[in-house]
Design brief:
The complex is a heterodimer. Helices cover about 30% and strands about 25% of the residues of chain A. By secondary structure, chain A is of the alpha/beta class. In chain A, a hairpin with a 6-residue loop joins strand 3 and strand 4. Chain A is globular and about 70 Å long. By secondary structure, chain B is an alpha+beta fold. In chain B, helix 12 crosses helix 13. Helix content of chain B is about 35%, strand content about 30%. In chain B, the strands form three sheets. In chain B, strands 3, 4, 5, 6, 11, 12, 13, 14 and 15 form a nine-stranded mixed beta sheet that branches. Chain B has three domains: about 200 residues, FAD/NAD(P)-binding domain, CATH 3.50.50; about 150 residues, D-Amino Acid Oxidase, Chain A, domain 2 (2-Layer Sandwich); about 60 residues, no CATH class. The radius of gyration of chain B is 23 Å and the shape is globular. Chain B contains 17 helices and 19 strands. Classes of the chains: A alpha/beta, B alpha+beta. Chains A and B meet through helix 5 of A and loops of B. Bound molecules: flavin-adenine dinucleotide (2 copies).
Chain lengths: ~260, ~425
């Protein structure tokens, strides 16, 4: 049977995060914690493969102890097993040790055929983690997937690129990052949620993974955030334009190099 | 063998209180809530009156998220230009901690957590579809095609009882059964609230309004409660009348209430934070479903247990008490759940204020939701006040004469006023 890992992150519900009007910082305290939305799309593709050919789906997340609720939610949607990677030593990680830690988890699980992740999160949105994990594991990766299927040892995916769609077929093991809203995730079920609560979420720390403290968390993070700046929204000049002035507008846009007028 | 002793549907005040009591009694309880976390779907103001919760969570006020204690209670009639109010402030209100102002989002989450701590299995983010009935006995619940079994089910799903309706255990709601509540939460700094409402940082202001200035035909009450650094402002409008006046929308009423000169000042510079709508049971005894059957009990709003007389709106306390009594009934009949044994729930309700109040105040809706109370009374009071205080260098009249003139100018007969007023006093 296929072994699939889905990486998920618990994030504050972006529709509920407010910007403090004075300090210009994000106020996350009021927001509910939810599973990063694209990760639910990733989980849905994993579940469709499970429906089609059968698979064992393990959901993993690196985060604080309360992130177990996000894992339970994924199990209530159909995942078989949940592992929370949690340890003081992991605190303050940037995307590099995050990728390393997740890769170590997947390596320890062993025999993984497909690793799924979202393409990016709503709270940090770097998009680094998926490709990072694939590199640490030394496996192929498919990014920006908007359709994913599995057949005879291959993942077939449609990638949404700026200049068109690209369909790729990659042999397992492979890591796939899935675009937000690329499918409709199925609901949680009470039966599965009860079973998930009874089964519980496993908790792995730095010792289980055989990682050194200097490799992970803040210490293992090459990025140093020096300062943060709030960027003001640019002012929009809303001019009313009538159709008889359209030539002026076009000329203006051409002069600013925003559009080109092509010849016949 | 059933998977659970009891399944409780809904982690509002009724469901969580029941689950705490059952878990404390050693039962294997499943508490299922649609919202995630609990409280996200709940809208009430709210003032929690009374202290019933101490029966299941001793010393609950210490750990509960209480915003303020009511120290100023008002009941006010608003006409287009005026406000006539009875305002009651008392140190006793604070000392006796009569009314606790809470924010349901936080409170429900706290109470559900207590149920989990007591040993209930709390499952959030799941909506139960219906009860599973086998040979006339409720044997569990249905969700997404799966059956989860239990010896008994407590229905605590609130004012929109879809589980009961889907299970064929009550008719669909009619416009007489429920009113429409809308609540807006408005942010204001704590010190501004203290100054503006003349309360200290522990004290709070709670007011109900009769919105006498609304267009003909529309009946709606309003409320305003001060939280710590927000105020809850809302309306409760008659669905009957809204439907009859097809052109009026509930948000128009809310808008007019907010724009009323006396309300506008109170919420000045506030930042709107949340806006939500919810049903409020208003039908009393006539709207009540069957409260028990073989294997199930109905509690709180789902049982239509609310009380409103224009001066207070209470439902949370009735929900808590009915939840506890339902749990008691099941605990006392462990291993012998039947329609017969569960019928004792109704006796318990009758012996408590829950059903006594519903019987005592049966028919009160005909008074509170009447044109007399909501339209004529405010106008008469307004005319009386105005003639008392508008000094025009004319000889003064006795109060009775002033009143009689006010009654006449509002197109009423004196005898009508007396009989309507008497009816009102009797019903309230
Ligand atoms: C206060 C704060 C400061 C930070 N500072 C930095 C910093 O200086 N430099 C930096 O690079 N990052 C920083 N981060 C980001 C954070 O530490 C990352 O590790 C984060 O977990 C992954 O980055 P991302 O959210 O951009 O993930 P993305 O790369 O956008 O996520 C892509 C996918 O990877 C998977 N994934 C991501 N994170 C996890 C996880 N924890 N567990 C399981 N799966 C996961 C999910 O499938 C996700 O959809 C900071 C975060 C916070 C909250
Ligand atoms: C605008 C407004 C103001 C109010 N002000 C006050 C006040 O100041 N004081 C007062 O005492 N009362 C007030 N009330 C009344 C009070 O809110 C209710 O009486 C009280 O909430 C009833 O509690 P309950 O537990 O029965 O129902 P609810 O509080 O409605 O709880 C029911 C719970 O069940 C969940 N649920 C519903 N269906 C399902 C399902 N199928 N599966 C799983 N879960 C489900 C819901 O999400 C909800 O959490 C007010 C009501 C409104 C609308």
């Amino acid at each position: 049977m296929l072994n699939i890992v889905v990486m998920i992150k618990q994030v504050p519900d972006s529709s509920e995060v407010e910007i403090d009007p004075v300090k210009m910082t994000l106020n996350r305290t009021k927001a509910r914690n939810v599973v990063n939305a694209a990760d639910l799309n990733a989980l849905e593709y994993a579940l469709r493969i499970k429906d089609k050919v059968g698979a064992n789906i393990t959901v993993i997340s690196m985060g604080p102890p309360m992130a177990d609720a996000a894992i339970i939610e994924c199990m209530a949607r159909g995942a078989d097993r949940g592992i929370l990677i949690t340890d003081r030593a992991f605190a303050g990680a940037d995307t590099y040790p995050t990728g390393l830690t997740l890769a170590a988890t997947i390596a320890k699980l062993g025999n993984v055929d497909i690793v799924f992740g979202g393409d990016e999160t709503t709270d940090s949105s770097t998009g680094h983690v998926g490709p990072g994990v694939a590199e640490f594991l030394g496996i192929d990766q498919i990014t920006y997937a908007k359709e994913v299927d599995y057949e005879d040892g291959y993942v077939i995916a449609t990638r949404d690129l700026e200049d068109g769609d690209e369909i790729v077929k990659v042999h397992t093991p492979v890591l796939v990052t899935v675009l937000l809203n690329s499918n409709v995730p199925r609901h949680q079920s009470l039966r599965k949620k009860i079973d998930a609560i009874r089964k519980g979420v496993e908790s792995w720390g730095i010792n289980e993974l055989g990682l050194k403290p200097e490799w992970v968390g803040l210490r293992g993070s090459p990025t140093i955030v020096r300062s943060m700046k709030a960027i003001k929204e640019p002012e929009h000049l809303h001019k009313t334009i009538t159709l008889d002035k359209i030539d002026e507008v076009v000329a203006d846009l051409v002069s600013k190099n925003i559009i080109k007028v092509g010849g016949k | 063998m059933s998977e659970f002793d009891v399944i409780v549907i809904g982690a509002g005040p009724a469901g969580s209180s029941a689950a705490i009591k059952l878990a404390q009694g050693g039962m294997n309880v499943l508490l299922v809530e649609r919202g995630d976390p609990p409280g996200t779907k709940n809208v009430s103001g709210a003032v929690l009156w009374g202290d019933e919760l101490s029966k299941v969570v001793p010393d609950w006020e210490r750990s509960a998220p209480i915003e303020r204690y009511v120290t100023r209670k008002e009941v006010a009639f608003l006409t287009e230009k005026s406000k006539i109010a009875i305002s009651y402030s008392s140190q006793d209100l604070m000392e006796r901690k009569s009314g606790k102002i809470i924010v349901r989002g936080k409170f429900d989450q706290w109470l559900a957590r207590k149920a989990k701590d007591a040993g209930a299995m709390l499952v959030t983010g799941i909506t139960i579809d219906k009860l599973v009935i086998d040979g006339g006995k409720v044997i569990g619940v249905m969700q997404d095609g799966d059956v989860i079994t239990s010896d008994a089910v407590i229905v605590a799903e609130g004012a929109n009882p879809r589980v009961l309706i889907n299970s064929g255990l009550r008719p669909k709601l009619s416009d007489h059964d429920v009113a429409l509540g809308i609540k807006e939460t408005i942010k204001l700094p704590e010190n501004v609230i203290n100054e503006r409402f003349n309360v200290d940082s522990k004290g709070g202001y709670a007011s109900e309004f009769v919105l006498g200035f609304l267009d003909d035909g529309i009946l709606s009450g309003g409320f305003l409660y001060t939280n710590r650094d927000t105020v809850s402002l809302g309306i409760v409008a008659s669905l009957d009348r809204l439907r009859a006046n097809g052109m009026t929308h509930s948000y128009d009423i809310m808008g007019k209430f907010e724009e009323h000169p006396f309300i506008k000042n109170l919420i000045k510079d506030g930042i709107p934070d949340e806006y939500a709508a919810h049903l409020v049971p208003e039908g009393g005894l006539a709207s009540m479903p069957k409260l028990y059957g073989n294997g199930y009990l109905v509690t709180g709003d789902a049982a239509m247990f609310t009380f409103s007389n224009g001066m207070v709106l209470q439902g949370i306390n009735y929900a808590i008490t009915s939840g506890i009594l339902a749990a008691e009934t099941i605990l006392e009949n462990k291993g012998k759940i039947s329609e017969e044994t569960l019928s004792n729930y109704v006796n318990k309700l009758r012996n408590s204020y829950v059903l006594s109040d519903l019987y005592t105040f049966n028919g009160i809706q005909n008074v509170t939701w009447s044109d007399f109370t909501q339209k004529t009374m405010p106008k008469i009071l307004d005319s009386v006040m105005m003639s008392m205080f508008d000094e025009r260098g004319m000889p003064k009249k006795h109060l009775m004469q002033v009143l009689s003139a006010a009654v006449k100018s509002n197109g009423m007969k004196y005898t009508e006023l007396i009989s309507s007023g008497y009816r009102m006093m009797r019903k309230m």
